[in-house]
């Protein structure tokens, strides 16, 4: 696995692991995502509503966190020569993410195979998203089609 260059299928091995940079969740990200998606559920945009539910504050949208993780993956020191993202599998929202939380992801190559033509490769990344306390808040896997 190479850093600071595009990794092709042949550069990766099952078991390779790396961390993304981190990002702190802001109020503007949550409100912007609500505006973009139309998801104005009150536990995302209303502090009192969220605290009345027993949370310590407003929750980030699960899909916002997933989107940020994809961006972190794409800005990491370890880059992939991606032809296409194929899917996100078995994605779980394990714990809440709040304004001010800092998240990062740990990615591990868990599987790889050539396509039928042998001209491209499919890599599966197992991903664990952790907050600043090291708690897993989301997890699942992402399949990518890579250049060979």
TrEMBL record:
Descriptive protein name: Acyl dehydratase
Gene3D superfamilies referenced in this protein's UniProt entry, alphabetically: Hotdog Thioesterase
Domain of life: Bacteria
Occurrences of domain MaoC-like (ranges): 14-127
Organism this protein belongs to: Bordetella genomosp. 4
């Amino acid at each position: 696995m190479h850093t600071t260059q595009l990794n092709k299928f042949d550069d990766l091995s099952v078991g390779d692991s790396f961390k993304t940079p981190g990002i702190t969740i802001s109020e503007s990200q949550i409100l912007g995502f609500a505006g973009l998606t139309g998801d104005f559920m009150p536990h995302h945009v209303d502090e009192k509503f969220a605290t009345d539910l027993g949370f310590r504050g407003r929750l980030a949208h699960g899909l916002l966190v997933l989107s940020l993780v994809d961006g972190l993956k794409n800005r990491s020191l370890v880059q992939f020569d991606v032809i296409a993202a194929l899917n996100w599998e078995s994605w779980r929202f394990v714990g809440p993410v709040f304004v001010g939380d800092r998240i990062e992801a740990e990615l591990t190559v868990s599987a790889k195979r050539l396509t039928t033509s042998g001209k491209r490769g499919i890599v599966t990344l197992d991903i664990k998203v952790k907050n600043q306390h090291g708690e897993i808040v989301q997890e699942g896997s992402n399949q990518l089609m890579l250049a060979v």
